Amino acid sequence: xxxxxxxxxxxxDTAAIWYTAAGRPGDFFELSQGYRLATPPQIDRATxxxxxxxxxxxxxxxxxxxxxxxxxxxxxxxxxG
Length: 81
Hints:
Order of helices and strands: HHHH
Distance between the termini: 35 Å
Strand content: under 5%
Number of domains: 1
């Protein structure tokens, strides 16, 4: 709700607290999407979460994080080296 501003004022820092407390890969992916879609986009914060997700195994969010990082590379927003 804090990520989208549905019932509360939009606040990604507060959303991060709640997503981190839940600790599920899907929640971390949603938080990274919130940073990616923020105005202005917070690409560095989103990238850090995507990279953390790549360390996990067996979750569909890992593949989604790979896809988003690939899009960042193609758009010139991220480079691993």
